[in-house]
Queue: 2 jobs
Job 1
Amino acid sequence: GQQVMQIPQYQHVQEGEDFTTYCNSSTTLSNIQWYKQRPGGHPVFLIQLVKSGEVKKQKRLTFQFGEAKKNSSLHITATQTTDVGTYFCAGPGSGGSNYKLTFGKGTLLTVNP
Amino acid sequence: DGGITQSPKYLFRKEGQNVTLSCEQNLNHDAMYWYRQDPGQGLRLIYYSQIVNDFQKGDIAEGYSVSREKKESFPLTVTSAQKNPTAFYLCASRPSGINEQFFGPGTRLTVL
């Protein structure tokens, strides 16, 4: 079935350093979503990308969707301790159904103050 | 105050017992989902329902059952057939026409 691969699995940074997580699919995605889960919490939707080559920014967070719509990235500039958590990408389920999501395994970000 | 509620937050059961996890939403969302989360495994879909009285198996449905008798409620039963039931269970809902999913706070189930 549909798989979404996400790397790295873990990333530890010093506060103020940048951070990037990458998401790759073997098939073309109609859209990709990003979620953040704080430690002990539940996933919270961050953004959805739909267009080829799309770039969206939310303050220090920059989201990109690849030209081929098979990969995506989330970049955080100058990390803060509030950025700690696991970041997940998610694409449509098998068959391209938007009723289901296939989640990557996530990247756990820890920030040393 | 609208949202998704899951109860209880922590649940302990003895091996061999069935247990039902509650998920209620007052967001008027049509679709609801159950995910299982294990360390390092991301979220895996157990069951989902697009509309009342209808539901489909997800990727790891074996050992689980659901019902969707009301739009607001989508309970999940973890049966004794589930070999490794200890996990964090997340319920989510989604409004029609929007891809974003809204998650509840989760139930952490421990089977002893």
Job 2
Amino acid sequence: SQTIHQWPATLVQPVGSPLSLECTVEGTSNPNLYWYRQAAGRGLQLLFYSVGIGQISSEVPQNLSASRPQDRQFILSSKKLLLSDSGFYLCAWSEYNRGSYEQYFGPGTRLTVT
Amino acid sequence: RKEVEQDPGPFNVPEGATVAFNCTYSNSASQSFFWYRQDCRKEPKLLMSVYSSGNEDGRFTAQLNRASQYISLLIRDSKLSDSATYLCVVIRGGYNFNKFYFGSGTKLNVKP
């Protein structure tokens, strides 16, 4: 069965510091991968998605970037964090199942920028 | 206009009640539809797919109305454990990629 891992689970970082969040998927090959952010009490905002190694599409302009160095690895980075980067960061993968794509989320990383 | 709109609630219902949520979507080209459940401070989890013919999973019934572009979720005999935020999701995409559009969620509180 497929599993998705994210780490760390929680993170407190000062403004201006760098960020690296990692996500790995097991039990599937060539998945579509996604990074979302959820601000407190808000909906999910799609940040990046990837259909393959080295292929990254950005949804919103911001100081974040993403990379996919391996098929099942997706990394979210920032060179300098802003206060507004605080939130719940979720990695997800999708697969085609029963005539439609379904999406599954990792446990998330709760980031607080101070 | 938002892709997916939901009433944020909260819906406060007693145990055993029947409760229904609706959500509307703006793009008629949307292809697939789902309900997800999100517990407080946790990741969203797939609850069920939504088909035009309607589908049922135990106490949960989902319905899609393509003509009016809305999706519904009915929960019968509510349990305390049903308390969560319910996210409506629509999918649109091309050959090898589908984009998921999430509503902001409807919060349900089931009271004893």
